[in-house]
Amino acid sequence: MPDAGDLLLVYVSSMSKQEAPVALLDKADRIRKDVSASTEQRHKSKLGQFMTPAPTARFMASLFPNAHGICRLLDAGAGVGALTCAFLDRWVEGGFQFDGVVAEAFEIDPRLNAHLRDHLAEYAERMAFQPRVFADDFIEAAVQLSLAGRQTFTHAILNPPYKKINTGSLHRVAMSRAGLETVNLYTGFVALALDLMVQGGTLVAIIPRSFCNGPYYRPFRDWIFKRAAIKRMHLFDSRNSAFKDDKVLQENVIIVLERGGQQTTVEVSTSTDDTFSDLVITRHDFTKIVHPGDRERFIHIPTSEEVDPLDLPGLTHTIASLGLTVSTGPVVDFRMRYHTRKMPEEGTVPLLYPGHQIGYGLKWPVEDIKKFNAIVDDDESRKWLIPNGWYPVVRRFSSKEEKRRIVAGVIDPRELAGFSRIGLENHVNYIHEKKQPLSEELAKGLAVFLNTSAADASFRRFNGHTQVNAGDLKSMKYPSREVLCSLGRWVMALNSTPDQEMVDRAFEEAIR
Fold first, then answer.
1. Which of 57, 263, 375, 431 could form a disulfide with 82 if both were Cys (CB 3.0 to 4.6 A apart)?
2. What start-end ranges are recorded for coiled-coil regions in this protein (predicted)?
3. 370 in helix, strand or coil?
């Protein structure tokens, strides 16, 4: 990767705006759709390749502050060039007052690289724009510049590849040399791009929201906070809006970072989809984004519709301080395939899946269940079984566009009478006390609390996964045992399953 400082700058000519290229982004978008449709899914997965649709590219380009002088732009993982095209279109339309633009675009896929060169060359023919297109591996090239301490770029616009990287892989080793430990290519791309920017430079990237929480992304979060200020974040209400052509069920966030910036308030915007027709913008103090004293430095993303859990009284406990533990169901059915049974039989005990969970109770067995209802209880399987009793349970995976991310229920041992042990499948989290069941009122109270809008809002602020991990439930704040038990007694007194409004009202009254 050559040093951008060595590049020949091309200055603005007397060309009028009318002579500038038009509709090149739309042309690039048509090619993106054609290439994506003709590319095997296996190839996309190998490269972590999901190209940016034109509406999202235009929106991302609009998030840069106005600027002048010479722009040095980085587009790493450029695809067919949609993001750079959108950036240049904004310049053509008067959104920037640059004297010239030098762009470095990286695309390792030769099928995309050729289109990228053609699209950027059309701009270069009619604008004060010099493109440099590289087929190099961006991680390897950027690590070399990072180690050399180069800070070159004034602007960066990225849709990096979404791909996990294993310990010992070449990318993992290379990034370790630069001081970054990470588990996904997208965090590596953003981290290294940020490291190569000049002070005051702006980076805009669309990335999975998964970096906001979880211990594996803590080094990446620390890397960002050490080098930049978060200026804005944008969320799509629909998980698959950003890359709907590729059918990606992934919650994405567009993030704007200022290299060396002072961290103050953060703008948070939302839209239903990539038309951005119902854009809503709110502003929040950084203490609402990263809670003071949070050693994990989880990134919360509040919106105007969400209840702010920090403003709720009584949420002062963690699962640990309540003397409880969250665990994932121990039974992994494909590893226990010789022990699982479709229906109960002699020598088996109940095996519970999310499909057995009905409100605050159970339905077991289920005759038409796609999985299993029972597991053989013998010396080999017994270590994976738990004592029968009252447990709050939470589905690990929420269905597409489910209203609540957290869906909690209760194991009712009365529905499993006659069994001293039961099996919990791996798609269920459960709460226990030193590996023993809880009282009925505490178990049901926890389920009620976890089903509140407040708990769901708190969870959504730092979790963008389609799954709820045990670690996420451990990170949340809870009411006291007394409040939880009062909620349990409340739901026990009902003759039916409460609706959302009833649950929220009961919770608000309990914590007053």
1. 57
2. none
3. coil
- Where are the alpha helices (H) located in 215-285, listed in sequence order? 218-227
Q: What is the pLDDT averaged over residues 421-450? A: 96
Q: Residue 2: is its pLDDT beyond 50?
A: no
Over residues 353-398, the pLDDT tens digits come to 999 988 888 899 998 888 999 999 999 999 999 999 999 999 887 6
CA–CA separation, 362 vs 365, rounded Å? 9
What sign results for the dihedral spanned by CA atoms 58, 257, 299, 222? Answer: positive
DSSP, res 282: E
User: What CATH architecture is 325-510?
Assistant: Alpha-Beta Complex (3.90)
CATH of domain 23-305: 3.40.50.150
H helix and E strand count, the chain: 15, 20
Q: Could you report the per-residue pLDDT of 315-326, keeping only the tens digit for each?
A: 888 899 999 999
- Asked if 393 contacts 242 with a C-beta cutoff of 8 angstroms, the reply is no
> How many CB atoms lie under 10 A from the CB of residue 294?
12
Please report the pLDDT score of residue 138 as a whole number: 94
Contacts of 424 (CB under 8 A, 6+ apart): 329, 330, 331, 351, 352, 386, 391, 393, 430
| pLDDT tens for each residue of 203-262 | 999 998 889 887 889 999 999 999 999 999 998 875 455 444 544 446 889 999 999 999
Enumerate the H helices of 127-261 as residue ranges: 138-147, 170-177, 185-195, 218-227
Domain layout of the chain by residue ranges: 23-305, 325-510
**The two three-digit tokens of residue 510, written as one number:** 């309990």
State the SS3 of 74-95: EEECCCCCHHHHHHHHHHHCCC
**Would you call the peptide bond into 365 cis, given omega within 30 degrees of 0 as the criterion?**
yes
